[in-house]
Design brief:
It contains nine helices and twelve strands. It is α+β, with helices and mostly antiparallel strands.
């Protein structure tokens, strides 16, 4: 069983910084970082010239950051691929009341040669790493619930991947999206849940997944290699991570060719890809509204005649 979150927590940002960097440390400049739509993101420049990345949200949303930190720690434990070094988390009442997560700042300006092939092989190493330590009482799930974007993500342990994906991924999203669906949609989604085992397969072995693996959640690290950020981790089928990479634009072909060399994609992966992404599109429907409904219906049309 993995240890509880090892990251220290602090009652103020000043305390967090002085505990991490020394008593004389202060913030000299705060620069807004673009890219996120859930949390405020900033680069903090400290008096010793160090840069620190800070994510902030309301005080009530501290669980966003403890869940994120647990996910990053899990990815790091596999030894397959890097994430930014975590520093600490906390809440701050002195500046209006907010929660925060501090981590290493990545300059990330220059990629190594064969960046995409290296990324694919490191991701595969994460997917091949033993995953039983990340689940209690089953083979699939995670030791705690977390978030997919701003929505809660349930990670109750199951012994079957198909059952886990049905009960903890598709069914909660379909239930939340019911007000978008007509009678025919509800009948079709019910049929799909009942027949999911006709389409999905059990993996040869469980894998720790990033869970929200699109281009915005991969950065160039200080070593010039790909680092993973903003995870929604759980143990599942490695194919679900690869499917997500293909949903919003995809990565260069070099990445997919190199990943296929690892043998982790089972035969007819392309026939299952849209089912994995149905979860992500339902989540976007529930987060952002009706503009994603046609994409959801297209996938239903593909699997239900």
């Amino acid at each position: 069983m993995p240890a509880a979150l090892s990251l220290p927590g602090f009652p103020s940002l000043n305390t967090a910084l002085t505990s991490s960097f020394g008593n004389n440390i202060r913030i000299t400049r705060t620069s807004h970082v673009t890219g996120g739509d859930i949390n405020k993101a900033c680069r903090l420049e400290l008096t010793d010239g160090t840069y620190v990345f800070m994510k902030a949200n309301s005080k009530d949303n501290l669980s966003f950051f403890t869940a994120e930190a647990a996910g990053l720690e899990a990815i790091a434990r596999t030894g397959g691929i890097k994430t930014p070094e975590l520093l600490c988390y906390g809440t701050d009442e002195d500046r209006g009341g907010f929660s925060f997560l501090l981590m290493e700042w990545s300059q990330g300006e220059r990629r190594i040669t064969h960046y995409w092939e290296t990324f694919a092989h490191q991701l595969a190493a994460m997917h091949r790493a033993p995953a039983e330590k990340f689940v209690i009482g089953g083979r699939y799930g995670f030791v705690q619930n977390n978030y997919i974007g701003a929505r809660p993500q349930t990670n109750t342990a199951h012994d079957s991947w198909v059952t886990f994906f049905r009960d903890c991924r598709l069914e909660p999203q379909i239930r939340s999206a019911a007000h978008y669906f007509g009678t025919g949609d509800l009948r079709r989604t019910g049929w799909l849940l009942d027949h999911l085992g006709d389409f999905l397969v059990e993996p040869e072995s469980p894998s720790l997944l990033h869970g929200d693996l699109w281009s915005g959640n991969v950065i160039v690290g200080n070593d010039g290699k790909a680092w993973l950020i903003d995870p929604a981790v759980y143990v599942g089928h490695a194919e679900a991570d690869i499917a997500m990479t293909e949903l919003f634009g995809g990565f260069p072909q070099e990445f997919y060719s190199a990943y296929r060399e690892t043998g982790l994609l089972q035969p007819d992966y392309e026939g299952r890809r849209d089912l994995y992404n149905l979860y992500q599109l339902l989540n976007h429907l529930n987060l952002f509204g009706r503009s994603y409904l046609s994409s959801v219906r297209r996938i239903l049309d593909k699997y239900i005649r």
